[in-house]
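I have been asked to look over a protein record a colleague put together. This is what I was given:
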Amino acid sequence: MYYEYEDLYSRPYRTPESEIPENLLHLSHSFGYDSGRRANLQVLDERTLAFIAGNLLVLLDVPTKEQRYLRSCSGGGIGTIMAHPSKKHFAVAEKGVHPYIIIYEYPSLRPYRILRDGTECAYSSVDFNPDGTLLASVGGAPDYMLTLWDWRQELVTLRIKAFSQEVYRVSFSPDNPVQLTTSGSGHIKQVEIISFKLLTQFWKMASTFTGLKLQGLLGRFGKTALTDIESYVELPDGKVVSGSEWGNMLLWDGGLIKVEICRSGGRTCHAAPIQQFALDEGELMTMGADGAIRTWDFEAIDTADCNDSGVFEMEPMNELVIGRSVRLSSMVKSALPDSSIWFAQDSNGCIWKLNLSFSNITDDPECLFRFPAGGIQGMDVSGVSHLMATSALDGSVKVFDFLAKGEVASIRFKQGGTMLTWAPSLVCKGGLLVSGFEDGVVRLLELYDPPSLSLATGRTSSEDTRELHLKQALKPHNGPVTAIAYAGNREILATGSSDNTVFFFTVGVVYKPIGFVNVPGPVQGLQWSPQSHGKTTLLILCRSGHVVELEPPEPGAQNPSKTFELSGLSTRCFKFRSIKSRIKREEEIARLQLMKEKKMNDRKERLSKATEEGRELAEEELHEEEEEEEELPPLFIPEPTSPLYCGFYSEPGMFWLSMGGYDSGFLYHCRFSEKQDEDPAHRQDEPFAFLPLQNLDEDPICTITFSSNRHLMLCGMQSGSVRVYPLQPDDHSLNSMEAYWELSLHDNEYGHLRHLRCSHDDRFVLTAGGDGNIFSLTLLPPEELERALHSPEANVPSPRAGVEMEGHAPDIEDVTAYSIETAKRKLETDRLLREAELKKAERSKKLAALRGRFRKLLQENQRLPDHVRLPRTEFELEPRFREEMERVTAQQVMEARKEMAWEQERHRIGLQKLREWYCLADNTYSLFRDSLECDTVTVVAIRSKHSVSTYRLRAMTDHDRQQRGASQPGTLHLQERRRSRAQPGKDGSRGQEEHEDLSGETVPEDTLVGGLKLSGRQAEKLGKAMEKAELARAKIETRKKEWDELYAEKPDEDCEDPADVQAIQQATENMGDFKLKTAQDYTVPEHLRMNAEKKRMELVILEEQIHQKKTEMNRRIMVLSDNKVSLVSQLHSQARQLQLVQQCLVPHLRCIPPALPSLRPEEVPGKRLQYSRATLERYAALRAQRSVDSHSVDRLLAASANHARMPSNPTDPAQKRNSQESHRSEEEEGEEGPSLLELLEGERPGGEGEQEETKKEEEAGERAELVTAPEVEGEALTELEKEIRREQELLWMYEQDQLLEQVNMDAAMWRFDAELLLLRHQKLSLDCQMKQADLRHIALFQELLLLLEFEERESTLQRTLQERTAEKNDVRSGLSECGDRLELKRSSVAKLQEREKTLMSTFQAMLGGNNPFSDFLTKVYKKKIKRPKKKEKETEAEDSEHDSDEYMERYDDDDDDDTDEDDDDSDDEDDSNSESGEAPTNDGVCPPNCDPALFEKTIQLRERRLDLQELLAEEKQSSDDLKRDYDALSRKVKVVQSGVESAQERLELFNREKQQKLNELDVVVPLRLHQIEFVNDGSLPRDLSPALVLHQGVPLGLQQRIKELHVEKRQQREMYRMARQHHAQLLRDGRDMEVHIQELEEHCKQLMVQRFGKLVDLDAMQTMTADRCIQEEKLKQERGQKVVALAKDRRQWEDKVDQSHHALMAVTRGQTERLVRLNQLICEKKMINDELKARQRKNRFGKLVDLDAMQTMTADRCIQEEKLKQERGQKVVALAKDRRQWEAKVEEAHQALMEVTRGQKQRLVRLNQLICENKKIDDELNGRQRQNVMGVCFQVQKWVVEEEELQRLRQLLKAQCQEADALKKGIYMLSRKGGNIVAPSQATTPLLPPLAPLPTQASTSKTKKDKSKRRLHLPRLGQEQPYTSSRLL
């Protein structure tokens, strides 16, 4: 089955119903190559290559260079291609919306299969499996879908998302057909197609009953840096080799990087990323972007293993470097079998043919094709020929013949080209190109045909070669050149750049600069006005949205100013302001208006139709609600302004613009404003017209060009499409721009069509895009085009005359070269600097002359006498000048110090570090001795060559001391603990002494017995009794303690010995298992867990131990060195004395002295740098002698003599040069042979200073003179003198013998040597230990580094565990606390329930059995009353005020309507109610014949019951809340516990991982051969890795343990047998002891009955006497104290009651007075009313009256009545206010009285309880007295007094209770009846009816309900109202 290509490929789009032909443009040729696309090269057969060019697939015939094309079917471009392994098919994966994968048959190119729905937008890679049955594809963003196809059946086999980032490649393994791999941005994945039951590795595709499935594992980079994987290769064994960004190879195994492969010395395999791998004939071939191809040994790579650094080094087997400028990206092998030919894709625009046989006859790489690399930045066509020129960012400028379809000429520069223009024919005869570059350079290139030139010059040249000759190079800009345009008159060239400048040049043989202008933004394009405008202007289009029009300068005008910047040119500016949002808004308004009109028309039609039908419309249809108007789109102005892409003139002062970004989709017609005085940066100009473009809202127009006759307008789109609009002639307003023709050519993503040109004859259209492709299209069919063209190729212009005589024009290759303007400004700046330097020199000369004159004046002044000499200050013109100069100097110094502060501090810190750490080698002296604690000192034996040296120790720093101090925290902690323990002891002792002092002051010892004050014999008796009781008690306590200890030691029946349990547990854990840290299941014990801090402490402790041992050894060696120094000095001293003595002797009497030991230089390193003048002179001599060998003898001798005589002067230049030469000579000497210092050191006498040597020689000379003087005069000696001389000689000989014996100290020397040998042996042993310690130090340091890596994770896990543990503890504590509170609440609930039951029983007992009101009272008691809440209580005061206001209003109403009938009716109602005798239905009122006390008691009990119920409800609610909290906490405990366990598990796993990492560290253990017992067949194996290193005692201990276990086993069996026998014996003894104990108890009981008559407690009886006396005394004292306290409280409460009573009386009296006053006012009001009524009845025309007077009187009367009413109202209000105040005071007094009474009652109840307790105690004591035979009887009189006192207190309590009850009743009655509280002597008859009582809690709700119904009835004057309990208001 085949598809038809004609039905599939994408065709051009035409506007429907337009007359535009479908084949308006025909593809002629493709000149470009998208070399930046991945894998854009495939081989179809031995001569055909295929690659993608935008929307085309190009099939290139290599030998003939002919091209065939296949268009994409989607029109969205092509994603990737892949050839079938058989080369009979190839796959084309496209781009677009749900693109296809089309399988073409080759070579017929018929579509064979179409694969659909593999991805959403585009394919990035496809690949066939080795046998060609499957196809794998990977999509791009956004889905990145990996799909496996059965492409022949067009079915999807598998589908899964490959990765979340871009995937570069997918491929099948050539060796494993069921494995495929993907790679991309930061990842690599491998896929296997295996059975479902096998383990998965990387990607896996498993076969199940539902089909296949993919599983994958992402490759992990581990320690290797994350990199993008461009290429890889699958090895036969499943491993994968991939590339990296830095050029090395990565070997993957099992999803992890096994090793990183590089070249020897750490060099990378390639200098750039590896782009492709190939496995060919057992060799691994890599191709890098550095242009190199290398082959590697496959076996070495496959078996590569890493070292400690994880890197494997190897060298390539073969190498082919194509070139430095080559960037290879892909490579395909030729289709010929067994061929070594490969075709390579070069990212720099080339296709290479490579022979990779790597033999001696291998051909060099051949470049088959060269294309522009990257996007085409500039393109233009010739105005006279079919030639096209392009420039690209690779620096190339190429000229193509699009008629012959080939390249004509090319040239390459260092910088990339950005713009190109072909000069018009009037400027040059078709051969001049103007090209702009990135660095701002503009180059003029001349194209000519060299054959004619070769004839003139005599050179030979082929006919096909063309040349581009550099004619001139200019640099007018500092940024990339973006626009070039020639003026219409061809006299001026304008160039624009992104640096916001436009430069003008005069056109000629040599282009000369005119000047430049600045524009508001980066230049996007330049266009000169057409000749039809009449006036030449330049339209400058800026990318920022600015458009500038200016008149060009005169071509011949040269700017004579200091700069090329032009001024005075006529300019106009336009700044684009977006109108797209307004356009959209207007369109939306129009659409809504059309919809509204349509609805109105529909409604009218319905109405007319209904009228015709004679029916009425429904209500809904008539009153149809209008829909809400849609919200209009908002006005939007983009910030910043949308970019401007292109534009062109329409009419003078008008132009069209194409914008990008938000404003795309329209062509805007604009014109310049008349107001040009505004700043261009702040202008806002709007287009006056616009032209909408279809389907271009997201695809702006990038370039616009017209055919020469302006019948076609061609537009290049951002999506790479070409759109053609047919136009009418002279249609500058584009009114005819309606229909269009569009074709997709370039890549739709990045192939922006930047340049679009028509040929000079309008037969060709050329396009260049950002994807690097260049297409030529024809407006005629190919057959007609061949007939129309007369030549098969374009004409190349001939060279102009004289070109052969011109040399090469100088080029500007330096990127940093100055531009024309910058160079001119630089010249001007240099001129100004030169002038400034000249002026500065002149001023300096003048200043020097003035200074000379000033010095002469000072000298002349100095020569004058003192009395006429001027002081120095007189020469100062102004002191401020000097002060200012000093200030400026100080400021400059300060600034210099600030500038150099950082450098100063850096050098200071560096010097400090050098002093601390830097030391030289062992044979040299330390540069900084302060950094060393001990230098190397060598001590040599005297009689042998043995020596011993000290250790070189670095001095301890503060950091070391802090670490060593921190390594001993136990000492500090122990001291703190000791200190904390000592402090309380001191405090306790001091407190005890203070207590003793206080006790001595307050209570003397002789009067205290048991805390009681006693005196006399009683105290003595009680003291003895107490002493005896104490002894008995102590004995009893001791015996009880012994029994308790004995019983505590008794184990349970099921108890096991803890030692046995621990031993069994240890045996269970370790039985048959020797725990190794290398075991996988090894669990690190808690005490062995290590962290960085502990390891650091171990490291510091080890360093401290090493330092201590080395310090101790150094001390011993230094002691030995001091001994040798003292011994040598002693021997030399004696030798000097011997020498002096021998000098006095005759030579034949002198004995030969023994050889003396000396100190070598290494034994006294401190004297190395000590020198004397003789040393310096000797050094100068040696240096001069060394220099003679290479230089002149005389000059060097003079230099050495001068150096020896002259002192050092660092400022002398000659001496500096000599010192430098000496340093250089010393350096040369150090390189050639031993240095002068070493020679000088070898010549120095060992251990003695030069001064001492000189002094000794002088002394010896003086002694010799004394001795030799008599010898000279020997002939004149007398006999006496001779005798004296003989005696003297004998004496000297004796001294000589004695000194010889002392000098010959063999014993001391041998003893010193023996000590040195012994110390040397110990040092060698210590050296071994130090080496082992160093190895241990290295191991510890490695462990520390490893632990530091784990420290953060460990701290995190520890912190998590601590937080979880703390949370668990908090939750558990909260749970226990909540449980305790819950138990308390439950107990309180139970108590409240008991109280409620008790209250009910109390109520029932109070009712009695035959109470007639029991039902009513029970109902009252059980009535549920809605009690006010706290908020209601707070508003009671407001309610009372409201009641008073309502009372006054009702009073006024009653007063106005005062009639006798109302009063009579009210009296009648009262009488009827009282006479009826019916019980009131209100349960809040006591019924008649019911005991008011019982009713009040019921009310009180109800209140108490309600209180209890409220408390009970609150407690139950609290209990329920606590229960819920408890349940929640219980659940939370489980969750937290699981969190703690998980944290512990994670920490355990972490410790195990840490231990495994620690096990991987190498630890050096020095062993001898006899210590190695790991042998195989009697020989030592080569590989000792399986061996286990143990301490020698461990295996021996294990072997010995086996024997011990056998012995212990026999012992345990014997012990078990004996234990069983012992157990049986103990059981028998236990039964016998129980029988004996029972017998003894019976005997004891019999004795107690016989003696005491009953069973008694003997222990208590022994301590009863003293205890009873003390207790009785204590009880008496406590009872007396309580009685006194109660009496005191009683008096206090009586005083409070009196005070409250007096306050209540005062309040009541005041209230009574106000009520009396109120009654008087009411009476007066009544009298006035009666008088007014009488006057009205009397003056009713009963006599002659004056009507006018009567009217006046009536008016006056009304006024008076109104005044009286107002005054009465004010008085009533004031009285009501006073009443409320006094009622509040009465209520407060009542509450205070209630509180006092309640407190008094509580205290009385407490007093009663205490009396009862006292009674109980007395009864108990009396009982004990009667039972205790040994008790002491007290006096009867005391008991009588106590009984009387008790009776008196009871009577007092009863009286107070009665008084309190009476007060409560009176208060209660008063509060309910409203009666007045007066003194007892006053009358109780009220003057007014009682006021309404204050609302109580029980009656508040009812009172509020009845407020609106109650009215106040006042009595008539004179009528008495008796005070009765039934009178209620």
